[in-house]
């Protein structure tokens, strides 16, 4: 292969995150995450039920509803959010299965923008960069603000197209 046709590092690692996401059995969303230090891949993870426990495809989703007070255009508004509590998020699994020493100064590539809970965990994990593809608008404002406070580079990979074979058809 001609070196000029090689994928850039962001695309390479995001492609791996999408490939990892194909292991997920979540009915709602397949998410993959990879831990990278420099150009070295240190770990991968995807969302799903704890090992040895029936997952959502076997036992159904465990949906919890939450309400959050947000201010839009100077007006207070209650926003309803639903999430599955059976599933451990990809970012959480990545933190569970990698060592703190490896995370210091590392980057996380994740298919989806982290939710507030995952962002909190990542902010305290030693990583210095989060790169994501698909946005998660429900939490993006407060997550972006926190990452700026922490000095963590937080960026969406614009113009990225995941490998076709990694695109899952999931329920909305």
Distance between the terminal alpha carbons, to the nearest Å?
Answer: 39 Å
Specify the overall morphology: globular
- Characterize the main sheet: 5 strands, mixed
Q: Total strand count, please?
A: 7
Radius of gyration based on Cα positions: 16 Å
Describe the structure.
- The structure is a single chain.
- This protein has 6 helices and 7 strands.
- Strand 3 and strand 4 form a beta hairpin.
- It is an alpha/beta fold and 172 residues long.
- The strands form 2 sheets. Strands 2-1-5-6-7 form a 5-stranded mixed sheet, sandwiched between helices. Strands 3-4 form a two-stranded antiparallel ribbon.
Topology:
Layout lengths: L8 H13 L10 E6 L2 E7 L9 H4 L3 E10 L2 E10 L5 H7 L3 H4 L3 E6 L3 H8 L5 E6 L5 H11 L2 E4 L16
Parallel strand pairs: 5-6, 6-7
Antiparallel strand pairs: 1-2, 1-5, 3-4
List keywords for this structure.
5-stranded mixed β-sheet; alpha/beta; 172 residues; globular; 6 helices; two-stranded antiparallel ribbon
């Amino acid at each position: 292969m001609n070196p000029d046709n090689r994928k850039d590092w962001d695309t390479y690692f995001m492609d791996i995150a999408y490939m990892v996401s194909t292991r997920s059995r979540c009915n709602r969303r397949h998410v993959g995450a990879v831990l990278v230090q420099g150009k070295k891949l240190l770990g991968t993870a995807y969302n799903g039920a704890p090992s040895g426990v029936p997952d959502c495809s076997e036992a159904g989703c465990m949906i919890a509803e939450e309400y959050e007070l947000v201010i839009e255009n100077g007006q207070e508004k209650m926003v309803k959010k639903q999430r599955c509590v059976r599933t451990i998020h990809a970012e959480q699994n990545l933190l569970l299965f990698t060592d703190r020493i490896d995370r210091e100064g590392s980057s996380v590539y994740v298919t989806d923008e982290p939710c507030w809970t995952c962002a909190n965990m990542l902010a305290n994990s030693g990583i210095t960069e989060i790169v994501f593809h698909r946005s998660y608008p429900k939490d993006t404002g407060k997550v972006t603000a926190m990452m700026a406070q922490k000095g963590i580079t937080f960026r969406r990979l614009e113009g990225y197209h995941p490998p076709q074979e990694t695109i899952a058809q999931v329920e909305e």
